[in-house]
Amino acid sequence: MNPVGQIAALLAALIHVYIFVLEAVLFPRPAGYQTFGVPESDVPAVRPWAFNQGFYNLFLAIIAAVGLILLHTGPAQAGRALVAAACGSMIAAALVLLSTNRRMLRAATVQGLAPLIAIILLIVA
Asked: What is the Rg, in whole angstroms, of the alpha carbon atoms belonging to the chain?
């Protein structure tokens, strides 16, 4: 995997850590729930879902990071497989987000562009 693809995968992981923080840590605060367009009155009902979803994003970030580490320290093929699995899942999640709400184009792009670049460069290089 070339260096640009590795940087894209690392950026994808960092974006998903940020999403984790928004969903699992900051969601009860206005900075959290307003980011997702959730009215304050709905926060108690939505918070458990956001908390759970935040951890999904964190786990994807961890898988991508472990894959990047293995590219340099362990079996490179295992690293490539982990990066591909994590980034592929990130892209799929971005497509699901966009397919459920077209107004989420910006969020889906933020969530899916870096892993898409990583996957393309993983395949090409």
From this structure: 15
> What are the structure tokens assigned to 41, written together?
């009155």
Do residues 83 and 64 lie in contact, with contact meaning Cβ atoms separated by under 8 Å? yes
pTM for the model stands at: 0.92
For 45-103, give the DSSP string: HHHHHHHHHHHHHHHHHHHHHHHHHHHHHS-HHHHHHHHHHHHHHHHHHHHHHHHH-GG
Summarize pLDDT for 81-93 with one digit per residue, the tens: 999 999 999 999 9
3-state secondary structure of 2: coil
Q: CA separation (Å) from 74 to 24, 66, 84, 90, 91?
A: 31, 10, 16, 23, 25
Exposed/middle/buried for 41, CB within 10 Å: 0-12, 13-18, 19+? exposed
The number of residues in the chain equals 125
State the Cα–Cα distance between residues 14 and 105, nearest whole angstrom.
20
SS3 33: helix
